[in-house]
Amino acid sequence: MSVDMNSQASDSNEEDFGVNSEDEDDDGGEEEEEEEDQGDISTYYEGVASDVEQQGADSFDPEEYLFTCLTYKESQRVLIEEVNTVAAALKVLPAVAKLILVHLHWKITQILDRFKSNSSLLLSDALVQPSSTCRSSLQCGVCLQVVRRDSLLALPCQHSFCKGCWEQHCTVLVKDGLGVGISCMAQDCSLQMPEDFVLPLLPGEELKDKYRRYLFRDYVESHFQLQLCPGADCPIVIKVEEPRARRVQCSRCSEVFCFKCRQMYHAPTDCATIRKWLTKCADDSETANYISAHTKDCPKCNICIEKNGGCNHMVNFCWMCLGDWKTHGSEYYECSRYKENPDIVNQSQQAQAREALKKYLFYFERWENHNKSLQLEVQTYQRIQEKIQERVMNNLGTWIDWQYLHNASRLLAKCRYTLQYTYPYAYYMESGPRKKLFEYQQAQLEAEIENLSWKVERADSYERGDLENQMHIAEKKRRTLLNGFQDT
To answer: Which of 233, 285, 299, 304 is the most exposed place for a label (fewest CB within 10 A)?
Structure first.
């Protein structure tokens, strides 16, 4: 379970790092706490793990991840402290230290080691010190006008340009959204311009404020321990000790995302694989449109049927493979495992292409099905919330008495979400013993999720202990799979 360790902001007279933030609250205490929407299941990660652990599940959660949500001023202070450390150690200006930090992703230990080993090489690699300099001239290298020496400006590379050309160069690039990365105007010279060189050249406070915002964005995005919250207009910065592909949630806008890639959380699939999968799904969306209708023919009477709940257990058959549900005991994993054709490499290109499409559609259908189930189970969650409210109003127990139904719905969504992301993982996985183990654990999780889904949708027919026991089993299967295959 992700752990949100919100730090408390405090007023400070420290140096401003560059962005005007008068409109931003320093701490979350001034924000109004919104009541949880009774029909919202997006918070299914919160509190569910501890509830299951009380029922005896394995206490180790492979998704546990410590992170801190920083306000703008708090993240400023983090950056300023590191800038001052490097500037003092390397005996360079803070603006130059920032460029060096960006170049090496703010890994201070690595910077100091490289500086001790070869200081000149470090500075030239970071593009803050030229490998060679040119002869100074009284002629601007851009407009070719001969001007007074005090009207020429140059970086350490000694490429001289008039102030007007420098101003135009910086103005255009900042308007294009550039922060760090503005370099010398000379051809074949990539020496970086520190912010204390650029700022005096920008006309007007509005453009200077834009530049400061772009700098802050670039500093955070280049920092190996920081990520900007991807929520719309959200200023929160997430800080971690060890950057990993783990679930984090913003304390301000509640956005949930993967820390490493800032995309939707996708365990057990790694960041590179989920990017490939989503790109492929987008490219092949028309090919897969025929399964988007979410309808199938009943295997007994051939009438067109549509699933109206998250559970894949129909009355007598399995929604996914249309097979008899009674056979979905210990052999349930056969339904979720793609059977490779071992002789396909010896067949024609057309046959190989058909097999490739068949394989993709197999995994895509299951990916889409669990996504559809998640949406349908929101309706079940809403019905349970209404039922709990009705019972409480009729003095048939307190909210705490019926909390287990609420937790069962949220745990079902949590497990279903993980299961959905096992299919991109399996699609790109190479055949072998490891894939067989993964598919076996995937199938076990799927079987227990369907059992839990069946019982949640029919909660009145099951004793509390039976439902809580099924919650424990499903969560344990989920953790077992993540523990063995989650991206590290």
So the answer is: 233
